[in-house]
Amino acid sequence: MGFVKDRFKVKADSVAAEIKQIIAEHGNKVLGETTIAQAYQGMRGIIGLITETSLLDAEDGIRFRGYSIPELREKLPKAPGGTEPLPEGLFYLMLIGELPSEEDVEHLSATFARKSHVPNYVFDVIEKLPISTHPMTQFSIAITALQKESIFAKEYANGINKKEYWSYIFEDCMNLIARLPRIAAYIYRRKYKNGDHIQPNGMLDWAGNFAHMLGYDNKGFYALMRLYLTIHADHEGGNVSAHATHLVGSALSDPYLCFASGMNGLAGPLHGLANQEVVKWIEDMCQELNTNAPNKDQISDYIKKTLTEGKVVPGYGHAVLRKTDPRFTAQMEFAKTHCPDDPMVQTVWNVYAVAPDILGATGKIKNPFPNVDAHSGALLKHFGLIEEEFYTVIFGVSRALGVLAGLCWDRALGFPIERPKSVDTHWIKAFIKGEAVKED
Ligand code: AMX
């Protein structure tokens, strides 16, 4: 795998030594209290995970190894003549902890291209599924089928020293990342383009080749894919897709099994499926109002109606963020350059103009601002990728970069099997009364 793997090992050894010292000297220091409400309500705010790749601040948004999204758009290497960062560069940053050089990114692009072959039996598995199967289900099944290729699983079965786990996990992660665009594009072309598949172009970067295999060979779409696959890659460790990947990995399941689990979580409407839901919500609104350019009053009424019907307004709200998501802002800036007059893009902006006040006025929605999913669908639609059921798969291809870099760190740092304590409501009632309850 070459110098990236060697550099990762050097970094990981040094961080592992630091962590050992931190635990020895400060292991008993209290990180926070846990309340009954937190135990019942999704564990919000409990610090119980270590994720080295990125850190989320409620006000500032996501930072990857300390770098914000605007900084990354400026500092990460770009394709020749390109305007947006190459996601391979972000992967390097998350893995190694330092900004890559142009050569580092070229090396990763070439490595992914070289490793991208997908065995035919995976396509056969996809072909056996009904064409109507949701693209995320097809994606998850294909990733699980590919598990047969896991080097870690084979070596583990042969018997390996704990100290070597990280090395095989690393190889599996690289192979899986390399193969995902081909699998995703295959699912897209099978479902929406009559199985008219497009062969990979090994000269292109990871995102450019994905755009090419999807069938959108234009500069604007290449730029969108590079931006999209960069900004969706990671959002610290507690979100469902990252946490699921990490949790399953703690049982020493190989990266294929872990990532399929993460994708099954990303497929939920409160997580990654929200990008598809946003487009459906806008289209339903336009259909009901019989216009493709609803005005702000009409949009306000439709938001209120959605709330009255007990539904969520997709693309708004967040478990941690308390401001407009910088990933939304990055896409808005991209749209201002590439497609400011697109009717759906304009509607996204008009929703943004009115939704925060209405959602805020409910008094219960903690974050009335847009998240990443509020904008992405309108951009994809603009470039002709109109099949919104596929959007979460693109999110998933990107998310692989973060969660699999995280998995490499998990094994390199020797993290143990994850097993938080759970209790039942009987236990909680006894605890409230101050009675002792027997624990496992
Ligand atoms: N529309 C309507 N109601 C909303 C809302 C929204 N956009 N966001 C939150 N609420 C409601 C919650 O459903 C909850 O209602 P309840 O008390 O009746 O159960 C109440 O407001 C409090 O929720 P919260 O603490 O503000 O949010 P949360 O941490 O529980 O949930 C999230 C966060 C993202 C699931 C939620 O905001 C939501 O459902 N948003 C819409 C779906 C969406 O856009 N998801 C994508 C998130 C980003 C991602 O992972 N890709």
Q: What is the tally of beta strands?
A: 2
Mean pLDDT: 97
The sequence of SSEs as H and E is HHEEHHHHHHHHHHHHHHHHHH
Give a quick account of the main beta sheet: strands, pairing sense, barrel closure. Answer: 2 strands, antiparallel
Rg (CA only) = 22 Å
Structural class: mainly alpha
Named once each, the bound ligands are:
amidocarboxymethyldethia coenzyme *A
Percentage of residues in helical conformation: 55-70%
Number of helices: 20
Q: Rough shape?
A: globular
Word description of this protein:
By secondary structure, this protein is mainly α. 59% of the residues lie in helices and 2% in strands. It is built from 20 helices and two strands. It has helices spanning 3-26, 36-40, 69-75, 87-96, 102-114, 120-128, 135-145, 151-158, 165-192, 206-214, 219-231, 240-250, 255-266, 274-289, 296-308, 326-338, 343-361, 373-382, 391-412, 425-432; strands spanning 54-57, 61-64. It has a two-stranded antiparallel ribbon. The chain is globular, with a radius of gyration of 22 Å. The mean pLDDT is 97. Amidocarboxymethyldethia coenzyme *A binds next to loops.
